[in-house]
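Archive entry: two folds, one per protein. Generate the first.
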Amino acid sequence: MTIKSVFEYKEYKRYLIAALGVGKKRSGLRAKLALHLNCQTAHISQVLNGQTHFSPEQAYKINAFLGHDREEGHFFFLMMNKDRAGTKDLQEYYLQQLSEILNRRSIIKNRVTATREVPAEHQTRYYSAWYYLAIHMALSVPELQNKEALAKYFRLPLNVVAETLEFLVGTGLGDFRDGRYVIGSSHVHLGHDSDNINKHHSNWRLQAMDSLTRITPKDLHYSVVFSLAQEDSEKLKERIIEMIKANLKDVGPSKEEVLFCTCVDFFEVKR
């Protein structure tokens, strides 16, 4: 589903019409939302095209259905409350809160744009779970540049994907352009002496172990323990390093279609 951000709308109904699709682009989302809200599809259309409004309880469920993160959900609630307001003064009250959110987001975006490398405190969160890096890299694949596709691909809850995308955009690692999430201008540099390096390796070793439970011809798993001369062990290490460099050269110009992980372990089996 490719739509504008909720922050680009001033009226919640206009946003929902775009999010749910119009005409031939509906793709059954209105029917799915009706099922989620336990109401008739006709009720959805009546609200979107008429003078009635969704209840706060329904708005809460709509937030979950659309996979809003916390700030998106709050903004959506404020838009709905503004449109439901019975007096001009109350409308102005909600409009002011909406404007404050937009102004704050603008300031944060400008600050992030000026900082190309992500600060250490954000790197700690980035490496706290495997899916931050996975979703970040997946934003280079055109077919995975929206919440729903990412949630399905990684089998993650929609709200987890939404929170991750919020973090990536907020740190400049991701961006939202033309209705799609893409890789941003900021980057993460992880040195060999970083406090996060062990967590990074652990995250992906655990994912490698998890992949053993899924039998697929695309994957390759190889484990062997052997004895050899100390001098030859250095040769093997250098050969592995050259292999990694050669692989990275091929990855650079390769078209972004799927996501793969390489975990290479070469160590002395000694306690």
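Generate the second and append.
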Amino acid sequence: MVNDVTREYEAHLKKAIEALRHQLATIRTGRASAGLVEHLQVEAYGAPMPLNQLANISVPEAKLIVIQPFDVGMIKVIEKAIQGSDIGINPGNDGRIIRLVIPPLTEERRRELVKLVRHRVEEVKVSVRNQRRDAMDQLKELEAEKLISEDDLKRGQERVQQITDKCIADLETIGKEKEAEVMAV
């Protein structure tokens, strides 16, 4: 019973860590990255679709992203989606491909992006704490229903706390790495 609760809790935390990695990949650094645009939603064929389903995305140089739509007629729609996004880059096209030249970040913009990274990390930490509370409540319910002993409850709570501490440390490490990436010139 206790192991089921801790296993489920651990699975939730792994998903939270992956979600944070995905969110941070969309934050721009001084280098070009396909992650910056690949999940950008584009209104195509009457439904929103991620850009990576509509085009090949490549990074031939450190400061350039090249987007080659599968359907050349989608260029204007893709450009519009990029302009409407918060990445702050104006696309250029030659009729067949879209080029995104990544301008160098100003010091002020880097600091704003670091704040955004910290904010996203903190949001995930709050989510982790909420998950911890839910796991602790589940353990207390099991003990109240006499399905586990008081000792099992204590061991389960300690295990949940250990898992939480490790996850928080991982989240902070991921955040620090992204901050260093953003601040690198």
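Annotation attached to the second fold: Residues 67 and 98 are 5 Å apart (CA to CA). Helices lie at 2-25, 75-84, 107-144, 150-183.
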